[in-house]
Amino acid sequence: MRSVPFVSVCLLALAACSHTQPPPAPPPAQIIAEPAPPPPAPAAPKPPPDVAPVSLYFDYNTSELSEATRAALQSFFDQARQRSDRDVRIEGNCDERGSREYNLALGQRRAEAAKSYLENLGLESTRVTTVSNGKEHPKATGHDEASWKENRRDDLIPTDHQIGVSSVTDPSAR
C-alpha cells in the first residue's frame, strides 16, 4: 500500500472544504398581514334644522293676512313639516288701543287666521295651539305708530309636544 503523504491529505481536505455550500439563507421574514381596519361607522344623519320662531304683522284693526305674512307662514310651514317633533303655539297680539275685551278677541282672530293658513298648507291641526294675549304683551312700549305697528302681530313659537313648553332657549328670541 502506498502511503499518501500528509501534505497531500491536507491539501485534499482543504480543497474539499472550499467547495462546501454556503450556509443556508435565513428564511424570508414572514409578513403578517394586519386585519383591515373596520369600515368607518356611517355618519349619523343630521337632524333637520330646528323651527325658527317668527312674528307676523297685521294692519290696524284687522286679522287679514298680507302677502308678506303668507310668505312668512309658507317658510314657517316648510320648516315645521321637517320637524314633526315640534308643535307650534300661535300668540295673537294687539296694540294698546281698544278695550281689553276687544283686543283679546282681535288677537284670537289673528292667531286663528295664521292657524287656518298653516292647516290649509298641510300642517296637522293637532300640532297647533292658539292663544290671545290681547294688548298684554307688547313688544314695543312706545305710544306711537311705530310701536303700535310692532305690537300688532302673531308670534309663532315652536314647542315640544308638551303643551306650553317652548323649544326656544333664548327668551329674547320671542
Chain-wise SSE layout:
Blueprint: H1 6-18, E1 54-57, H2 67-82, E2 87-93, H3 100-121, E3 128-134, H4 145-151, E4 153-159
Parallel strand pairs: 2-3
Antiparallel strand pairs: 1-4, 2-4
Helix pairs in contact: 2-3
What brief labels describe this structure?
4 strands; four-stranded mixed beta sheet; single chain; alpha+beta; 60s Ribosomal Protein L30, Chain: A; 174 residues
Short summary of the structure?
With 174 residues, this protein is of the alpha+beta class.
Description:
- The chain has 174 residues and is α+β, with helices and mostly antiparallel strands.
- The protein has a domain at 54-169: 60s Ribosomal Protein L30, Chain: A (2-Layer Sandwich), CATH 3.30.1330.
- The protein is 33% helix and 14% strand.
- It contains four helices and four strands.
- The protein has helices spanning 6-18, 67-82, 100-121, 145-151; strands at 54-57, 87-93, 128-134, 153-159.
- The protein has a four-stranded mixed beta sheet.
- Helix 3 links the parallel strand 2 (87-93) and strand 3 (128-134).
- Helix 2 (67-82) packs across helix 3 (100-121).
- The longest helix is centred in the middle third of the chain and has 22 residues, at 100-121.
- The model is unreliable at 169-174 (pLDDT under 50).
